[in-house]
User: What shape does this take?
Amino acid sequence: MTMIAERIAVVGAGAWGTALANVIARSGRAVTLLARDAAAAGAMAAAGESPRLPGIPIDKRVAIAALTESRPEGDAILMVVPAQALRRTVASLSKTIPPGTPVVTCAKGIERATRRFMTEIIAECAPQAVPAILSGPSFAVDVARGLPTAVTLAAAAGQVAQMLSRSLGSATFRPYHSTDVRGVEIGGAAKNVLAIAAGIVSGRKLGASAAAALVTRGFAELVRFGRAYGAQPETLTGLSGLGDLILTCNSPQSRNFSLGVALGQGGDLDAARGSGHLAEGAFTASVLVDMARAKGVEMPISAAVAAVLDGTLTIDAAIEALLTRPLRSEGWQS
Assistant: This one.
């Protein structure tokens, strides 16, 4: 394992991929940003910016290429594609990934069809690679502009996590390293579902008190689920758990929160989903709840979100069901 990743490839040239490419360039590493095709790569190179981040320049040190013409090469590869597209992307590139190369997923979700976490998909599709994950409270626009941001970067081997943190870190982007891969994955996936619930509370204008209660009890659900699946408590209360939950449950910049707001205001689900902005929580909700039930974990808020998204429960009925739950002692287990 090298002490630093001097060359890094970023697969996925959306807002988050472009922002991370800027981060890597600022850290002094050589970085290639790989767009989906030649037309997209050419347009970004000509404009000097991403259509997803208008007005924010792509660092001139970022090389832009197309996946149809190039393959990711480097000491580490960042996979910045949606959670439900990760398997297809990694499988298509697996033969070109050298053994021992860290492959870092930057998606926050659980694969709906298989209930697999993101690093499990990497391990299945590219067994010669070293899976890792980057997650935490971060909006692409802030990161792209170079505003101060702290995240968590986890790999099963501590030396890999530390190497990746050193490689990506800069004065304004601080990746804290961890070996609790599962805890980081759970925090990122669960908070997206809870952010939809927070958005519904905001859209329904239920007030700041209700919003605070929702986030607090939602965090209790996240902790219960995390413990059941082997997450470490300090990870769940850290940047990739509580930190990310606080961010996404309180800002319209969050796609999941914005989806919830639209639903809370009476918007049509199909129209809200078709806005062009991906809300990972909409895909994760039902599988999160199914996995919770398999472990006997009670997650009433997440279950209400899943039911609303599946069309089996109206928002008013979901709110009533939550408000009429039996009173009990406060704690992580209740």
Remarks:
- The longest strand covers residues 149-155.
- The beta strands are 7-11, 30-35, 62-66, 76-79, 102-105, 130-135, 149-155, 173-178.
- The CA atoms of residues 265 and 312 lie 18 Å apart.
- The two ends are 44 Å apart (CA to CA).
